[in-house]
Amino acid sequence: MNSFLNNIKGDKVIWAVVFLLTLLSFLAVYSSTGTLAYRYHGGNTEYYMLKHAVILLFGLLLMYLAHLIKYTYFSRIFQIALYIAVPLLAITLIFGLNLNEARRVLPLPFNLTFQTSDLAKITLIIYLARMLSKKQEMIKDFKSAFVPLMLPVIIVTILILPENFSTAALLFTTCLVLIFIGRVKFTYILGMIGIGVAGLAIMISILTFMPGDQGRLGTWKNRVTSFIEGDIESNYQTQQSKIAIATGGVFGKMPGNSTQRNFLPHPYSDFIFAIIIEEYGIIGGVFLVLLYLILLYRAVKIVMQSPGTFGAFLTIGVAFSLVFQAMINMGVAVNLLPVTGQPLPLVSMGGTSIWFTSLSIGIILSVSKEIDKQKKEQVNQAVDIANA
User: Which of 6, 63, 38, 51 is closest to 358 using CA atoms?
Assistant: First the structure.
């Protein structure tokens, strides 16, 4: 056990945040899957608890293994992964498993599924970090820098957009933030924002005026219009979430005492934040928000100390993506945003979501580990010079 703990390197505060998020995830998922267990497993509430525990443990193992690898190797690994992720996204659009009127996952053996957009997100961010670090000398040039940076972004987001608009928007925004930090000419970024806003406006207009049910388009039409108009009947999920938050009060009903888990759709994933507030109160909700903000703060500190541009871009890109996704999930729960279906990173129940989140945090820890290693070497050199 001691040897294992000695092998854990990197930012200890991030490790502590991960431990707290994992613990909260285990408790919240176990509490919120009771109805699911009675519906599909004859009341065996331990089924989902054990399943989620295995997923979390495997995620922590991935995080541990990723943090042992020198972060520069991820540049080469995910360069290859991009050529795998793009075809997988196209295959998912055509042959993906149809869940909730959307083809987002590929079926795997043993009744498992794989969400290809999770692979595409981390792959694209690492690709951008690599390209930004390589093209800093020509970063203001449109043809040599901006086009090679944005072309994969456009391709990936277009492939994700038809079945998962929220993920496509989240990824597109993260990429724009990353290239802004990478000193790409601001007028180019404004142009991309303008194209994105115009595309979104056109999409909302089409959804608003299209009659009847149009599958996935109809789902987004209902979500956008019910959010804008505040329609209580069609916005059932948000109403139940608000009831959970209101009845939780300041201190909550205590773990396991949620009542809205019996009425709220997907209380273990999309709306797990509402269940956490219901059981742990506003204090618990604020504590969870602080954990994500601490993660972002520590990531920024790592960026400031990183000796190489790739490590800096990699860290801020991955960290921003995770925290931005968390804020979107929590924003939906408190009715600040329309329903998106985004899970709460490292907290919501899921397979590929937790595993790729764990891998992402492992990469951040890998950068942190290398910084600590270089600092230690510099101290040792200074001691050797002083003793010479």
Answer: 63
